[in-house]
Amino acid sequence: MFNLGTVFKFEFFRTLKKPSFWIVALSIPILWAGFIGLSYLGAKLSSESTKKLAEQKISFEIADEAGIFTKEFVKSAGGELSNSSTDSLNKVKEGKLDAFYLIPKDLTKNSIQIHAKSSGITDSGKYSAILGSMLKAAATETVNPNKVAILNNVTKTDSKLYKDGKEHNQFGEMIIPGIFLVIFYVTAGFFSNRMLTATTEEKENRVTEMILTSISAKTLIIGKILSLTALACLQIILMVVPVIVAYLIATNALGWKLIDISFLSNVQFSPEKIIVGLLILIAGLAMLMGSIIGLGAAMPTAQEASNYFSVIIVCLMAPFFVINLFLVGENNAITQFISFFPLTSPIALLLRNTLGTLTLVEAIIGIGLLSVLAVIATWAAIKIFQFGTISYGKRVKVKNLFAK
Known about the structure:
A four-stranded mixed sheet has the order 2-1-3-4, sandwiched between helices. The protein has a two-stranded antiparallel ribbon with strand order 5-6. Helix 1 crosses helix 9 (217-253) and helix 10 (271-298) packs parallel to helix 16. The protein is elongated. The chain has 17 helices and six strands. Strand 1 (60-64), helix 3 (71-76) and strand 2 form a beta-alpha-beta unit. It is mainly alpha-helical. The protein has helices at 4-16, 19-55, 71-76, 85-93, 125-142, 145-151, 170-205, 208-212, 217-253, 271-298, 302-316, 318-321, 323-327, 333-340, 345-355, 360-387, 398-403; strands at 60-64, 80-81, 99-103, 113-116, 161-163, 166-168.
């Protein structure tokens, strides 16, 4: 194991020297910032455009069968009540009137009709915008503001939950454990391919015999796992830090109103959940890395390994497909199975730890199981790599491995 540091440095800095690593690491936060910025600017421009359209002055008449508007209200808005729907419609067709609105008696069953002069696709929205503004203003005048708030779903609630006689912020307690879930998801999503090629590239380049003459398979595999872990941590930092910096610049320097992060002030630290989450993360990543590296060592090429690799990823992400079962609060047979099945266990346990449905006994069993599987997966990866060193062009079969 005295060459472990050498392997770690070689694998770590070899990856850092690749332009692809930095392109992926830096492009993701740049794309995030770009999408968020475009989304914010798009929403702002759309809101301003709609407001400007609603403020435009046009000539119009309204046939109000529902009795929403008074004559004085329509006149103050720059229009007139229609005496004849047919006459008003003809005025629009002849270009003497900009718009004619026909409001049916029962708005729950029939649609409001808008007949207007064509003014181009970019400017035609003003007719519905002006009518919408008028309808909202008329409804506000005649309906209780509190009822309007209820109908518009803009009411606010301030909930306080209590546990053991003290106020309990359940959401604030989920933030830190949830970070471990995000880290595992990001690492599995962005580094799985790198784990897969960590051993296949030596076999494809046919240099494994030379490597193993000076370094043992155990040292090589463990060194690769440690270097991949360090690279994963570095890439997460490179992804998160630019986003935080961009957010601070946008909110403080540019004055943009982006996502409200005031909820972070309510973060609560639960030592038990943090320790459990950290242990699940470490054991889960160790098992995942050992399994994928072992798969890569067993296959002659990365392309062939990717066929089996997709099965691992689908199983790993399976808990998200049945997330509703985790949100019901009560554990059932399916969540129990997913929590302790090797390939679904890491995310399932982290998800339940975040939601607060993972008991201490289940956490101990789950962490113990993942730790044992991590050791077995690493041991198997070492043996497979050692046995498959000269298996160029064909994959390592399990029966041959045990026979050897």
